[in-house]
């Protein structure tokens, strides 16, 4: 399809990508801001009106779009790769590591985005972005859960990913070695929790819980799962392998 046949969404998507590429050299100085967007518009020649359609809220929408583009790159890599020789824990660890490696060249852009999305006014945007990353990983790895586990898996991974990103931003070790050690420890913590949870579930009290309050919680979780990608608060989840 030629450019002349593009629809308005096609033009907006193209403008968004061009502006993001141009913005990266300005973010280190001006953050994800109006100044950065204006500079990207000047560098690319994208019409100012089209830029407004691409990023209605300016800098914060650019930061979110930059984050989502990283998710899209990771999704393509995971779905196109062969991880069949790995257990699920190894797959999750690999996916989180690759998500950071894909944006390693733009660490300052990530830092600026994390700072912006930590502000109270944009906290919901940040929460939803992290949730989408966790959902991208689980979905690309073949998770098909629709019950309470859908929610808890993504919430747990959101917490692991968030903590790892913050550690990575302050890590100056060669090849980010300390970050990968940190990630391994966080994953190990989750797996230890899962072992304890499994033991409790098989106890008499755990069976009573599963038959009563636990069943109700699972029904509620199934409803929450339908609200995919809405950025919900962390809760302990489950995965194995």
Which structural traits does this protein have?
disordered C terminus; 11 helices; mainly alpha; 241 residues
Please tell me about this protein's structure.
By secondary structure, the protein is mostly helical. The chain is 73% helix and 0% strand. It contains 11 helices and no strands. It has helices spanning 8-30, 34-44, 48-54, 59-80, 88-101, 107-117, 123-140, 148-169, 177-201, 204-211, 213-226.
The poorly predicted ranges are: 213-217, 228-239
Task: Compute the number of helices.
Answer: 11
Structural class: mainly alpha
Mean pLDDT across the residues is 85
Helix % is over 70%
Shape: globular
State the total count of DSSP E strands. Answer: 0
Following the backbone from N to C, one meets helices and strands in this order, namely: HHHHHHHHHHH
Largest sheet: none
Give the CA-CA distance, first to last residue.
44 Å
- Rg value: 20 Å
Q: Roughly what fraction of the amino acids lie in strands?
A: under 5%
Structure in a nutshell:
Helix content is 73%, strand content 0%.
Topology:
Blueprint: H1 8-30, H2 34-44, H3 48-54, H4 59-80, H5 88-101, H6 107-117, H7 123-140, H8 148-169, H9 177-201, H10 204-211, H11 213-226
Helix pairs in contact: 1-2, 1-3, 4-6, 4-7, 5-9, 7-8, 8-9, 8-11
């Amino acid at each position: 399809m030629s450019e002349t046949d593009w629809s308005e969404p096609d033009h907006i998507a193209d403008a968004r990508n061009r502006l993001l590429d141009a913005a990266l050299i300005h973010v280190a100085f001006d953050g994800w801001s109006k100044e950065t967007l204006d500079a990207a518009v000047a560098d690319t020649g994208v019409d100012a009106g089209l830029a407004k359609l691409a990023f209605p809220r300016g800098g914060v929408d650019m930061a979110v779009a930059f984050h989502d583009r990283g998710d899209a790159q990771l999704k393509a890599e995971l779905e196109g790769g062969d991880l069949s020789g790995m257990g699920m824990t190894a797959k999750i660890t690999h996916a989180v590591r690759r998500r950071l490696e894909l944006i390693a060249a733009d660490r300052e852009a990530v830092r600026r985005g994390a700072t912006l999305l930590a502000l109270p006014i944009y906290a919901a945007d940040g929460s939803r972005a992290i949730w989408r990353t966790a959902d991208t990983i689980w979905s690309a790895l073949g998770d098909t859960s629709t019950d309470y586990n859908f929610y808890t898996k993504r919430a747990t991974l959101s917490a692991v990913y968030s903590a790892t990103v913050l550690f990575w931003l302050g890590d100056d070790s060669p090849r980010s070695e300390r970050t990968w050690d940190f990630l391994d420890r966080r994953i190990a913590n989750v797996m230890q929790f899962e072992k304890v949870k499994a033991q409790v579930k098989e106890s008499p009290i755990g069976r009573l819980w599963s038959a009563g309050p636990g069943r109700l919680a699972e029904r509620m979780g199934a409803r929450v799962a339908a609200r995919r990608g809405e950025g919900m608060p962390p809760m302990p989840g489950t995965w194995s392998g």
